[in-house]
Amino acid sequence: MLPGVYKNVRKDGTIYFRSSITYNGKHISLGSFAAEQSASLAYEQAGRLLHEPSISLESYEDGHILPFSKWVSLLNFRDNGMYIKTPIYLFKRYFYYFFEPDDYLIFDIDDLFYYSTRTISRRGGHLFVADYGMQVNILSRFGIKNHAIKDRDYRFINGDSNDFRYSNIEVINRFYGVTKKENRGTTYYETKIHWNGYFTVGRYKDEIDAAIAYNKAASVLLTKGYEKQYPVNYIENLSKEEYQCIYKNINISQRIYNLKPLP
Q1: Which residues of 167-176 are buried (b: 16+ CB within 10 A; e: fewer)?
Q2: Neighbouring residues of 27: CB distance < 8 A, sequence distance ≥ 6
Q3: Average pLDDT over every residue of 115-121
Q4: pTM of structure
């Protein structure tokens, strides 16, 4: 067999060839190929990537035997001494997660462990990872809800929506049904809830009060037979007693109380 190539047989009897390379004591799989020559080319290309400093991420072109994701992993190992299976390239305090040579996300180094073990996928303009069997929107790591709208509920401070460093993300509206607003220099929080259209629950000086008002309005609607699955605002750093006190005393629109129960 050619160097770095191993012959295998699938359950149906089909022969295929695996390629791998060892670098700095690390055994790295390069993939499976239909032909021995292709597996050998992958081995040769990986060797050049690992031993020729002049080859960079910008050197990648379509038609290479190794996919771009493997290029990223190999060059990061060569330059930074850490082999990562996902397409991550490290810098001092942050890293790039690549999709294509000119298409990548930026994360803080604190997120390295999380994304080194999870593959990011795109769907419908959103970014997801598989986490314990569930598809999780990566915005949830910043406390951003699935229904959130960019530039209304959160924003990228430097304008780059691919820069997911914590210092670059500002969460404007953290809670369901709550929107931060300003009027003549005064900030307030407006709470709305949906039944037969959106309805204003109230306006509040404090974001926590507005979030609890949403919970209270949802509870009233549920007791009247409105069976919509309203999400719950979970309030951290409040004791049970503190939450109950605010819940009891917060005012919500009288129209919600006046609704007739559904039959």
Answers
A1: ebbeeebbbb
A2: 20, 21
A3: 96
A4: 0.83
